[in-house]
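PROTEIN DATA CARD
Card holder: Transcriptional regulator
Chain length: 329
Origin: Pseudolactococcus piscium
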Amino acid sequence: MAKISDVAEKTGYSITTISRAINDHPYVSDKAKKKIFDVMRELDYYPNNVAQQLRGKGTKLIGVIISFVTNPFFTYLVDAIEKVAYQAGYQIVVLQTLEEADREQKFIEMLKKRQLDGLIMTSLDNDSPEVLKLIESGKIVVCNRYLGDKDIPLIRIDEKKATYEATYYLLSKGYRKIAYVSANKPSRIHVDPRFAGYHEALTAFNIDLNWDYVLLRRASIGDGRSTLTDILAMGENKPDAVLVISDEVASGILSQCHLLNIKVPETLAIIGFDDQPIADVLYPGLTTIRQPIQELGEYVATVMIAHIEHKALPEKPELKTKLIIRGTA
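Structure generated from the sequence above:
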């Protein structure tokens, strides 16, 4: 295990200067701080101030990494996690990445520094080797996130099955030009189980994938409105249905359809994902994939606490999705 003296030797700075840099002392230049922190990461050296102060008692803090606090899915998920954690004597710290890799990395380093007892990861940002190395260093539970074959507790619903059934439903209703709308980045689409389910259903009907219909980086109501603009710009070959991986984005598409007098579902069918409360009050009601957010959050928190306390992991409950048929498809 690296020591502060190793950092001093490699950087050429004194131990005093390195300590000041760690504590963000104004006497240390930004250039020196950058060099020191780069070497600390390279040597995998992290000060353990919090753990030393608490003398091994732990922080009783659990970090929850999410992409956007404004996303209603994360609001309900964090609510479920917090209630279980509180009952067990833990507090949660919500860590928002804004889908920025640097933010995510810093949050994972908080665990490495023992500022957190455990970390729940729910966002879909990066899986660079450096970040994966940090993930492997501590108590991590991954919720609805794909991390390849890493040996990390992974809790997720069957997203592939959910989108397969939704796409199959649209196809069985006669829709053939179905767009896929997601917040995902292009670099992650090939490891996206929701996209895989959509693609597999098209294949079952002998329909080739049209990449023009794969619309990515759409995460808000405003993105939904602009998505409809992009769809209409396709002219004669525009989609007749959309599978949207967020009720929020789907509601933006539906809202824009009303403004432009586009009939739903006659001209454009819409299916969302999550079954947020807004889905039932929209007109027409939003057909969507319901996922068990509360059960998911409760189980994630239970697993996290068992992991921290070195207890046997609880049996996984059935976390089933359900296609809720309303008026948009």
